Structures are given as C-alpha cells and as structure tokens.
C-alpha cells in the first residue's frame, strides 16, 4: 500500500505538470514542469523524500526498459534515418562531449566551493 501511495503522489505531480503544459504558452515539455514541481515540493518540504523514495527508486531501476520501444522504432526507421545518419552521429558525439565537460567543470567548482567553506569554518 505504501508503494501505491508513493507512486500515486509521483503521478499526481506529473499530472500537474501536464496541466501546466496545457495552460501555459511556453514550449516546455510537461515532464519538465513535473520535475520542477517535484523539486520545489521536495525543497520546501511540502513532499518529504520518504513520501516518494521507494517508488522513485523503482522507476529509476526500470528506466532502461523504457528506452526499448524507442530503440526498436529507430531500427525500423533506418530508411528515413540513413540520409541524416552522419550529421546525427556528429551532433550526438559533440553534444555529449560538451555536456560531459560542462558537467565535470560544474562538479569540480561545487567540490572546491564546498572544500573552501569547510576550510573557512575549521580555521
């Protein structure tokens, strides 16, 4: 029953994201609205982590399974993808490298900032 309550809470937040997507005129996916709502609810304490922890962990565990239909569709659409295959691969590789670099730099910056804060408190 606990798992069902947690999953229902996550679905409620996702549904609120869908409503915002329909109401607001911005080109933002409903899932992003849902993630923002969930983040704000967790940060403000409206939803505590314990209210969604197990269901969220389960959804993260099965996430790779959700990519199977998309992968199958790519394989069946080879004729349409063949003319743009090289540009798509180049764009994918370049954007992946950029995202990895920016993420690494941001992580290093946050770690250094945290070390400086700790060093300042201990002195």
Question: How is this structure best described in words?
Answer:
With 123 residues, the protein is mainly α. It folds into 2 domains: 1-66, no CATH class; 76-123. Helix content is 82%, strand content 0%. The protein has helices at residues 2-23, 30-44, 53-61, 63-66, 68-76, 78-81, 85-122. The model has no long low-confidence stretch (mean pLDDT 93).
Q: Which labels suit this protein?
A:
123 residues; 0% strand
How would you sum up this structure in a few lines?
The protein is an all-alpha fold and 123 residues long. The chain has helices spanning 2-23, 30-44, 53-61, 63-66, 68-76, 78-81, 85-122.
Summing up helix and strand content along with how strands pair, one would put the structural category as: mainly alpha
Low-pLDDT runs of 5+ residues are none
What is the number of E strands? 0
N/C terminus separation: 50 Å
What fraction of the residues are assigned to beta strands by DSSP? Answer: under 5%
Shape summary: extended
- Gyration radius (Cα, Å) is 20 Å
The DSSP helix count reads 7
Percent range for helical residues?
A: over 70%
Main pleated sheet: none
Order of helices and strands: HHHHHHH
Q: How many domains would you count in the coordinates?
A: 2
Mean pLDDT: 93
């Amino acid at each position: 029953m606990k798992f069902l309550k947690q999953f229902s809470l996550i679905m409620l937040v996702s549904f609120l994201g869908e409503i915002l997507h329909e109401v607001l005129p911005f080109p933002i996916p409903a899932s992003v609205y849902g993630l923002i709502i969930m983040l704000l609810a967790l940060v403000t304490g409206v939803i505590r982590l314990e209210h969604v922890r197990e269901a969220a962990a389960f959804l993260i565990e099965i996430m790779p399974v959700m990519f199977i239909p998309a992968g199958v569709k790519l394989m069946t659409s080879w004729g349409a993808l063949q003319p743009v295959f090289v540009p798509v691969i180049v764009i994918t590789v370049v954007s992946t490298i950029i995202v990895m670099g920016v993420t690494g730099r941001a992580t290093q910056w946050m770690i250094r900032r945290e070390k400086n804060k700790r060093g300042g408190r201990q002195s």
